Amino acid sequence: MKLICKQSDLANALNIVQKAISSKTTLPILTGILLEAKNGALKLTGNDLSIGIEKSIEANILEEGTTVVSSKIFGEFVRSAVQSTTAHKPHKAHANIICNRYGIFFVFPQFTPS
After folding, report:
1. Taking the mean position of all CA atoms in its chain, how far away is CA 81?
2. Total H helices, total E strands in the chain
3. Domain extents for the chain?
4. Would you call 60 helix, strand, or coil by DSSP?
5. By C-alpha distance, which of 54, 52, 49, 61 is closest to 14?
6. CA gap 25, 95 in Å, rounded
7. CB burial string 4-18: b at 16+ within 10 A, e below
8. Is 27 in a helix, a strand, or coil?
């Protein structure tokens, strides 16, 4: 999954979707946010089995895909990315994220369900 989006749009969408994330759960997947990149939009979904919130933002989708990220870690990263430039070397088990004042560029690894 590869995409480019505005940091402010992503931060606002995360704030909305994180309201559905439970901090105390026995199912670790419920602490994550589902990211789906397709058709020119990034859809974020949070769910705690009793309530689900979806929010879509405009994005330049370079490669479609779906992944789940930690709500807390990803949210903190996106909020702190304002006006900073960060580059991480790609690795097959990690996300490659580049931030600058123009936006955020993501490359998430693809995992094949087995």
Report:
1. 13
2. 2, 9
3. 2-23+31-107
4. strand
5. 54
6. 25
7. ebebebbbebbeebb
8. coil
Report d(CA 57, CA 14) in Å as an integer: 10
- Residues 18-33: tens digit of each pLDDT: 999 987 777 888 888 9
Structure-token match 């979806």, residue found = 54
Contact criterion met (CB below 8 Å) for 107 and 88: no
Element (H, E) at 102: none
Q: 15 by DSSP, 3-state: which?
A: helix
For residue 65, give the amino acid letter: G
Which homologous superfamily is 2-23+31-107 in?
Answer: DNA Polymerase III, subunit A, domain 2 (3.10.150.10)
Gap between the Cα atoms of 102 and 100, Å rounded: 5
Q: How crowded is residue 57: how many other Cβ atoms within 10 Å of its Cβ?
A: 17
Give strand pairing partners of 34.
45, 68
Q: 22-66, pLDDT tens digit by residue?
A: 877 778 888 889 989 899 999 999 998 889 999 999 988 888 888
